[in-house]
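Mods, move this if it's the wrong board.
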Amino acid sequence: MKLHQLSLFLENKPRQLRVPSKVLAAAGVDILTLALADTQQFGILRLIVQDWEKARQVLEQAGCVVNVTEVVAIEVPDRPGGLDQILAVVEEADLNIEYMYSFTFHRGDRAILVIRFEDGDAAIAALQANGINVIESVELFKQAKA
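Not the wrong board. Structure tokens:
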């Protein structure tokens, strides 16, 4: 139920973001969602793609430094208080969120969040025990293409 996320470290200067975009496009790898965070010296590009193994291979062949991490995708009610409902469960289970970002598509009246937890297995168990839908990768990829 965990997704593989690719993290790339990029110099914080012009034209660096184009490199992974161009490499993935040439390899026919579709980016489902991404997040970019920066500091003065470098940026971290986080990607979820359908074929993460192929993406890692072509990015590394192009000279990119790629780190693979596991993240959890969940459904969040898309209404005021929807995120707070999720965070209450996270707080009650004493889980630590390292970072999160959202997908650009919805599933009916639900948004999709990607969360990196310190302990992904404990997070999945706590979320599911509280009725929160943890989305499997195959299901997520089908939604992204619908």
